[in-house]
UniProtKB/TrEMBL annotation:
UniProt KW Glycoprotein keyword: yes
UniProt keyword list: Glycoprotein, Hydrolase, Protease, Signal
Ranges where the record places region Disordered: 29-58
Organism annotation: Lithocarpus litseifolius
Any GO molecular function: serine-type exopeptidase activity
Protein's name in the database: Lysosomal Pro-X carboxypeptidase
Amino acid sequence: MATAKVKPTILVVRLFFLVTITLSSQPSLASQSSKSNRPSSKWAPRFLGRFSQPPNQQQQYRYETKYFSQRLDHFSFSELPNFPQRYLINTESWVGPERLGPIFFYCGNEGDIEWFAENTGFVWEIAPRFGAMVVFPEHRYYGESMPYGSIDVAYKNATTLSYLTAGQALADFAVLIRELKRNLSAEACPVVLFGGSYGGMLASWMRLKYPHVAIGALASSAPILQFEDIVPPETFYDIVSNSFKRESTSCFNTIKESWDALVSEGQKNDGLLKLTETFHLCRKLNKTQDLADWLDSAYSYLAMVNYPYSANFMMPLPGHPIREVCRKIDSLPDGTSILKRIFEGVSIYYNYTGGVDCFEVDAEDPHGLDGWNWQACTEMVMPMSSSRDVSMFPTFDYNYSSFQEGCWRDFRVKPRPRWITTEFGGHDIKATLKNFGSNIIFANGLLDPWSGSSVLQNISETIVALNTEEGAHHVDLRAATAEDPDWLVEQRATEIKLIEGWINNYHQEKKAIFYM
């Protein structure tokens, strides 16, 4: 196993903001040589997936569930109805305001907040060490934090969805923190932000946008650079593909060849029926693209949760799940068809426990993530493409016009691809963070396909990149286990030490002010 190493690198580059852009929409799986369109917001990149398991209803951590009445629009004075923002809170370890007990505040993601709370054991486990309060607020328009009283009304059209933005969500968090501190006489207590994936993006942006509200942020697997032309659009799928290729070249090649085999089979008489049987689908396949999307999702999420131990975040999976998928694909007898190999391999993701009799390729989203389609069609415009040589996926270029058409058809809205970088920055991020930021940890496992669009170099003494070669999607935020490799233990120890430094410095500054 490789050990986690942090090598400080400081780089200052000329700041610029004017760029030209194009954005992506994957093509239909007609052929890898043709460039047809996949024109729906459904195909915007997602951090989580509708083919993953529903939230775990068995609580591992104790908390109270409370609700806070939030403004629907923080940036106008219009009289709009408030909505109840759900948040989970635990004060059992908190040493209280007299001792300036810290508040550990997780920036809620695009889904049910209980799911994220159950899968963020790191925050719960270190809270007693710091005497910290733990708060998990839910992101507006997800879970139970639904404006207008119901998801049907909230998601009705572009007007009712217009308040689903990252800026509004950060304002929710800032207002909630201030009200909690006021109600608990804890105005002087320091706040430390945590977040993984989209939540990590929010944590880093909140530290930059509201530096007076929180003293630092741990942003794990936060792809804050996956916008405009900041990183190559093929980055995500290249990393997914390399994760398979590093385990087995033959496995990589089998998957790469399978797309043509899938199309060829689907075009035959009764081909869709044959595919339905081969992949044990619950109902007859309508088109090959649906099956291709199902496979695409599995490979992408396998790369995200390629943890070194068994886990149950997206699906019940073994440790090193990509290794197990490739082992299954490669171990079948000579003469086994490509599609049969693919089915056996992907069953590691969709049916590792063996309890599924048939598969739904159009399964409903169990996490309530549909709001992400809106976010991706408005401000979270993340260009994606698949390269011909490096990627094991069908080749496609990104196409902003097609993407824009899909968003207009789905939501009657036009994307604003430059807004996120206008609001939070992104271009020449090293110079920006060096000049205007402090106390942010960017943690990334380099097996995670989202790592390619995160901050991977140290910016300053207080803005640190922790990269682990064997790490996957925000693995550092997961609960500690007996199976944790040394590099993961070391990474978490480094994060604890940095957070400890933030809090100690804050206390020292407070004492200095008191004695002045």
